[in-house]
Amino acid sequence: MVRSVDAEVLSAALLTIEDERSWDAQAELTRAISIEEAARVLGDPLLIARARLCQANMRMRSGDIAGAAEQIWQVHEWAVGNDARLLLARTHLIWACVHQHLGDSEQALEHALLSVELLDDESTTHMHIWHRTKLADALWAAGSMDAARIRYAQAEELAVLTGSPVLLSLLNNHAYAEYDTGHQQRAEEVAKRLQRLAGERGIPLEPAFLDTIGAIQIGNGRFAEAETTMRLCIERHAEGRHEDADALPEYLLTLAQAQRGLQAYSRAQESLDECRAMCADRDLVEVLVRVHQEQAELHAVRGEFAEAFAVHKTFFTAYQNLHSLQREARTRTRQAMFETVEARQEAERFREQARRDPLTGLHNRRHVDEVLPVLIESDPSLTIALVDLDHFKQVNDRLSHSVGDQVLIKVAALIADGVAAACPEGFTARIGGEEFLVVLPGTLPARAFALLDGIRRTIREHDWRDLTHGLPVTVSIGVAAAADAAAPTQPALLSTADGHLYSAKHAGRDRVVSAASRGYASAA
C-alpha cells in the first residue's frame, strides 16, 4: 500500500513539471532528477521514463540540446516498446521544440503534428491545449499562418471552456505570431483579448506578455501606450518572479523603440545604453546585435548620419558573426544528436548480434532465455518444438563440415520460412549444433502438429542432390504445449519436447511426436 501511495505522489509531482509553467528550468531539472531516483527505488519504469523526459525538457530550455536529445531518444524508445501513448505524445512535443531551436521548421512541424495525433481521452486538458498551441507555433514558423490560426482557435476554445490558466500563454503566442507575420490588426485584436481575459480573471500580465503587447503597440504606431506598457513590464520583472538572463535587456530594447517612436530620443538613448551594458555583462550576443541596429536607427532619426552609418557597419558585422556562430552551434548540436543516435543504433546492433547465431542468422539460446519465459507466463496457447537433423554426423563425416554448415543454413531457412508463413508471431532459434527450437505463440497442439509436420515434409522433399549428392536430409521433431502442462515453465516444456524428440528418433526418425499424437507422422 505504501508503494502505491508513493507512486501516486511521484506521479502528481511529475504532473506539476509536465503541465505547469516554470521559469526556473535548473530547479525543475534538479527536482526531476530527484523524482527519477525515487521512482527507481519503487521500480516503476513509467515514472522513471516520465522523469527523464522532464529532465530532457529542462535541459533543452537551459540550452543543452545535445544532452536533451540523448535522453529523448531513450524515453522515445521505451515509450514505443511499451505503448506509452501519452508519454510518446509529450516526447514528440519536446522533439518539435528541439528542431524549432535548430531552425528546422519542417521537422518541428512533423513532430508537432505527431504530438497532437497521439492525444486521446487519457491526455490531460493541458496537453490538449498546449500541444495544439505548439502545433500552431510550428505552422507559423513553417510559413502556414492560415493553418496556424485554426489550431490557435481550437486551443483557445478548449482553454476557455475549461478555464485553463494556459489560455493567456497561448493568446500571447498567437498575438506574437500575427505581429511577426505582419498582420498588425489581427495581432492587436488578439492582444486585446489577452488583456481583457487577464483583467476578468484578476491575473497580472507577465512581463513577457506585456513585451508582446508593447511590440504590437509600436507596430501600430501607438508609441505612448507602448512606453507605458513597457514601463509596467519592467516594474513587474523587478518583482523577481519571471527571470531569464535575456529578459530585462529584451524589455529595455522594446522600451527604447517605443521612445524613439515618441521622438523622446534622450530617454531612448538611456534605455539603449542600459540594455547594451547588460548585454555586454551577460554575453547576450543575439540581443546586442539588435541593440546595434536600434542604435543606428536612433542616430538616423536624430540626423546623425555619419554615426548611423558607422554603427550600421558594426551591426552588419555583428549580424554576420552571429549567424556564423548560430550555424556552428546548430552544426555541433546536430552532430552531437547524430552521434547519440548512431551510438544508440550501434549498441542496438551489438545487442541484436549477441542474440543471433552467426552461422544461420537465427535467434540463439540467449534470445530464447530472454523471451520464452515471458511467453510461457502470458500465453496459455503457446506451443514449442525441438527440431533435430537425422544422422547429421554422416553429412559431416562423409561430405565435409563445410557441406554440413550449408545443410544447417538451408534447414534453418526452411524452418524459419515455414514458421513465418504459418505463424508470423513465432520464431526459430538454433540452440545446439544441429538442434533448433520453434516457438509458436497462440498455436494449440493440433494446429502446431500440422504446421510442424508440413515443415518436416518440406525439408525431406527439398532437392538436396547438388549439396549432399544423394544423402537424404530429414528431421525429427518433438512438441510440447503449454496447454498440456499444469504449471508450464521453460525447463519443463523443453524437457517434454526433448522427450518427444527422443521418441521420434527411437521410432525411426523423420517424424513429429507430441503428447496428443503419440501416433507418429508417417515418413512417407
UniProtKB/TrEMBL annotation:
Sample GO molecular function, one term: diguanylate cyclase activity
UniProt key word Transferase: yes
SUPFAM superfamilies associated with the record: Nucleotide cyclase, TPR-like
UniProt keywords, alphabetically: Nucleotidyltransferase, Transferase
Pfam families xrefs: GGDEF
EC top class named in words: transferase
PROSITE patterns (UniProt xref): GGDEF
Source superkingdom: Bacteria
Span of domain GGDEF: 380-517
EC number: 2.7.7.65
Matches recorded under InterPro entries: Diguanylate_Cyclase, GGDEF_dom, Nucleotide_cyclase, Rev_trsase/Diguanyl_cyclase, TPR-like_helical_dom_sf
PANTHER family referenced in this protein's UniProt entry, alphabetically: DIGUANYLATE CYCLASE DGCM-RELATED, REGULATORY COMPONENTS OF SENSORY TRANSDUCTION SYSTEM
Protein name: Diguanylate cyclase
Protein's organism: Actinoplanes hulinensis
